[in-house]
Specification:
alpha+beta, Immunoglobulin-like, 4 domains, seven-stranded mixed sheet
Length: 426
Amino acid sequence: MFAVVAAFVILLSVIFAVPASAASVTYSCTSASGAKGDTVTVSVKISSSVQIWGANVKLGFNSSELQYVSCAKGGIVSGGSLNPQGSSINFSGMFNAKSGTVFTAKFKILKDSGSSTLTLSSTENTDYDGNVYSCSATGGRVTVTKPVTGISLNTTSVSLKKGGTAQLSATVTPSDATNRTVTYSSSNSKVATVTSGGKITAVGGGTATITAKAGGKSATCKVTVSVAQTGIKTSGGAERTLGLNSTLRLSVAKVPADATDSYGVTWSSSDTNIATVSSNGTVKGVALGTATITAKSNGWTATYKVTVVEKTEESSSDISSEESSSDVSETGTETTELTSTEAVTESTTAAEKTEKNVFAGFIAKVKAKLNDDNNTVTKFYHYCMVAAASAVMAAITIPVTAIITSSIYKNKMKKNGNNTNNTEQR
């Protein structure tokens, strides 16, 4: 029975065993690049179908092109040694996994250009049972790059009209620099755009900076775009209302808005008796009425219609209590007739008198302005004010007088009735 079991185990080991000739063991070395004087790192790796318990790996390099700096074992190494010797690094040991990094090595680049070859070889790759496996090994390469030391453009400034174009050309030094790719960008795409090939297009008025970059170096070109002005227009509305003795600052806008031309502006008023205007566009209302304010620039014109009106707050403040009381004698005859009876004079309260005096003072003030003003329009305006105020006085005074008179009459009648009764009783 024991012999049968042993035979069965041997059969299974034969069936599932990996023949040495069928195993795949591959070593490789990564590549790197850098400029002269740079330190680069490469890695030696294994990829195997079986776990190797014994390996010898050698990385060779040209010591006149690459200077050894350091080396370190990889994570899959479970035991062994790593020794740099002259122009090679030798590893001998075992692994705890089938694939991974065997070791890393650092080199300093000594040559100016070109590349340096790294050779890789391996022997005696055995498994736990001592089976020996053949392998393949692929070396790496260190490519020497030449950095960009400078970049320049065919021009540092460009002046264009809107819609115009210009072509930039970049020169990268040294001529054999490894990365000679140039990229372009604009600081303000609303003024100027630039293509990947350096073509500039002017799209709006103003200035923009075009930047060319290559290998960490850069150069710039200032682009100035001019836009011809075709006119001017009012700003903020062409019709304005201005209080008497008040000021208003007017301005004009360029057409088109991004025009870069610069022209002076002169101001004038169609009637300086109504509104004046200063050299900077400040308008002052000097009399009631309407005036046209005109702005001129390089032959173009823009006009504002300015209407000067009486300021409400000034009208109210002009009617002081002192003026009202002193001008009461100048009120209309209608008021005098309404207050001529003895009954009304005796019964009018102090509050009613004050109310009438305010309106009378207002009318007197307006009349005074009317006499001093020679302007037909303002005279008409003041006439209207007098008529309105008189109507208000009449509307208030007549009902009040009628009510007071009726009350006095009733009181007198009642008193007379009482006297008559007393006489009859006697």
